[in-house]
Amino acid sequence: MTYCLGIKVASGLVAIADTRLTSGTEVSTNKKISVHQLENHSLFIMTSGLRSVRDKAVTYFREALEEQDHSFNKLYKAVNAFGQQVRRVANEDKEALDAAGLRFNLHAIVGGQLEDDSEHKLYLLYPEGNWVEVGETSPFFVIGNSNYGKPLLFRSLKYGSSLAEALKVGFLSFDSTRVSANDVDYPIDVVMYERDSFHVTEHRFQKDDLAHLSLQWSMLLQNSVQRLPNDWMDPVFEKVREKV
Questions:
Q1: 115 DSSP assignment
Q2: Helix (H, G, I), strand (E, B) or coil at 218
Q3: Cβ(135)–Cβ(177) under 8 Å?
């Protein structure tokens, strides 16, 4: 499993991906974000699914970029090209994967801005090669282990949030997933893109870099629970006392 989060706010994009890979009892680390940057062409791809399928699709896409980069003046065209490579890999490998009891399950988040895009864009691409674009009402996509981190995103993230706020909420979403799932862990790769900058910035955080934030967040949650009012529970405990 994996945890990849893409966020679009008015001022730019934030992407966070864990690096843990599990295969049976074997655990390893591998980068799950690919950055492609040429002058006014800036984009990143995050994937979840079988590593062999992911690596093959990304390799094919890099080749397509080298051959056709001049034709990609808007990000959706590059996303279409990546979708074509995903379908190509599915055609090549799906039968063998099915025979081995494995499922072709490649999902991807693609974000960035190309020269003729009016603004930065963020897309979610499905294993079938089709895609949807993020909207302002819920300005994020999560692929992989998405159950634990979404509630915080829905409650705290807005399209008008700053990039710093988006990164902070994104980290807390990852941290909520990490403490709940054994197959998501550090290091985490962070990508940031400022609107109209045509420059993608990458950074990797190790566990020791952010351990103090995780501890502080846990303490704040505990204190918040203790500070919540108790009077709403009175009808329940009155019934309990009546039976004593």
A1: T
A2: helix
A3: no
Q: What is the pLDDT of residues 122-179, one digit of tens each?
A: 999 999 999 999 999 999 999 999 889 999 999 999 999 999 999 999 999 999 999 9
Q: Angle of helix 207-227 relative to helix 163-178, nearest 10 degrees?
A: 90
Q: Which residues of 59-79 are buried (b: 16+ CB within 10 A; e: fewer)?
A: ebbeebbeeebeebeebeebb
pLDDT of residue 21: 80
Nearest to 111 by CA among 151, 70, 157, 143: 143
Residue with tokens 């295969």: 23
What's the CA gap between 132 and 123, in Å, rounded? Answer: 6
pLDDT confidence of residue 244: 66
d(CA 109, CA 133): 10
**Residues 88-92: what's their mean pLDDT?**
96
pLDDT per position as a tens digit, 13-26? 999 999 988 766 67
Cβ-in-10-Å burial (0-12, 13-18, 19+) of 184 comes to buried
Q: Which residues contact 212 (CB under 8 A, 6 or more apart)?
A: none
| Cis peptide preceding 187, ω within 30 of 0 | yes
108/85 Cα distance (integer angstroms): 12
70: which DSSP letter?
A: G
Helices 51-68 and 75-99 cross at an angle (nearest 10°) of: 140
Helix H segments across the chain?
Answer: 51-68, 75-99, 150-156, 163-178, 207-227, 234-242
Torsion on CA atoms 83, 88, 94, 96, rounded to nearest 10: -150
pLDDT above 70 (res 218): yes
